[in-house]
Amino acid sequence: MRSTKEGKNHIIILERGEDVIPSLLKYCTENRITAGVFTGVGAVNKIEIGYYEFETREYHFRKEEGDFEVASMNGNVALFEGKPFIHAHAVLSRCDKTLECIGAHIKKCSVAITLEIFLTEVEVSLTRVHDDFIGLKLLKV
To answer: What residues does each domain of the chain span?
Structure first.
C-alpha cells in the first residue's frame, strides 16, 4: 500500500495481492479516519459479492473467479462499536471478451493489478448501530 494525503483528501494505492477491505480498515485505523466516503478504480480478483435479502435477514454471497475491471466502486467509512467499518459496493466487468458486468455489496476481493482509492474524510459523526428489525448495521446520524 502506498498513500498520500492533503487535508481531508487521501489517495490510497493498493497493490497486487492486497485484500481490499482489511487494507482499507488498517489505513483508516492508523490514520484515525472515523467518517468518510470513497471511490475506487482498478482491477480485482478473488471476489465475494452479494446482496442482502430482507425477508430472511441474511446476505447471499457468491465467489467469482478471474480478474475484473472495477468499473465503479463506492463506499463509506463509519464507526461501529468504536472501530472503523467499511461499507463498499462495486460494479465489476470481467476481463475477457464478454465484458460481463456484475454489481453488488463487496464482502471480499483482492487487488489483481492495482486499485486506486480516493477517500475523503467528512466532518460529521458517522456511526453504525445494529437495527434488529432490518437486521443490518445502519448509519445513525
So the answer is: 2-140
